Each structure stands twice: as structure tokens, then as C-alpha cells.
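Hey, quick one: can you model this chain's 3D structure?
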Amino acid sequence: MAWICIGLGAMNIASGLLQALLLLISSPAVTVQRLSESAGLNLPPLLTWAINHLGLLNFLSILLSALFTWISYGLLKRFEWARLSFIALLILSAIGFFIGADLFLRALAWVNVSYTAGVVEMDDPMNQMQQVMRYTLYTSAVMIAALHGWIAYLLCRPTIRAEFKRHY
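Sure thing. Here's the predicted structure for all 168 residues.
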């Protein structure tokens, strides 16, 4: 599992660096602003902030990927600090998925309120699609939390704990 995590972390770092390069040669905030103004759209404040701070968010993503890769390397070397850190990352990422799902659903509700004004009722296919999106988000959040909880449980079992070195 540690090798897979190291590979994923390295790919995320490489992806983040490529995204940073693209952010240097393009200006997505200006493009989004022009497009939203020409379409007469007012974006939610949180989305506007995220678009205006893509560089910061990308930098934080690269840092988290580097931390994940370092912890995964420690897991490969069977260090106790890495086991505990990996468990913490599992729990935090499961919580983060619930937060992300909630933010997405809030944005969806905002869009419904902001852009369906004057419309008596949303058409049935669109309503069904949104119900499926909600169900998928909630189901995914629960499944990811269950998977992360199971991995954390395995890492806490005495037989696995005994494999890890106490020294740092």
C-alpha cells in the first residue's frame, strides 16, 4: 500500500507543478470573470474567491501531496510516526469529503435559488438528475469514510502495530 501511496503522491506533485505552469501562462480568473459577465451570471462568493486564489490553492495542494508522499515513505520504512500520521490523514480526508459534498450541495442549492427565479417548478429530468447527484455524493462520502475507517482499523490492530518501529 505504501508504494501505491508514494506513486499517487508523486503523480499529484507532478500534476500540481504542471497546473502551476499553466496558471503562469494563463489567467483563468480573468477568463471566468469575462464569461460570467457576458452571460449575466453572478458567481457565489466562495467560488469567486477560489477562482481568484487558484495559485494559493494549487500550492497548498502540492504541499499536501508532498506531505502525503513523505508519510507514505515513512509507512514503507515502518516508522510509528508514519503509521499514526497516515491514520490521521485517512480520518481527515474522510471528513474533508463530507465537507466537500456539503459545499457542492450548498452551491447547487444556491444555483437553484439564484437562476430559477420566475420559474414555477424545475423540470422533472433536472430534478431527477439533482436527486441522483445528492444520492451519489452521500453514498460516496459514506463509502469513502467506511474504507478509510477500515484501513485505519487495520493499521491499529496489534499485529500491524508490532511491525512499526518506535524510534524516529
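One thing worth noting: The chain has a mean pLDDT of 88.
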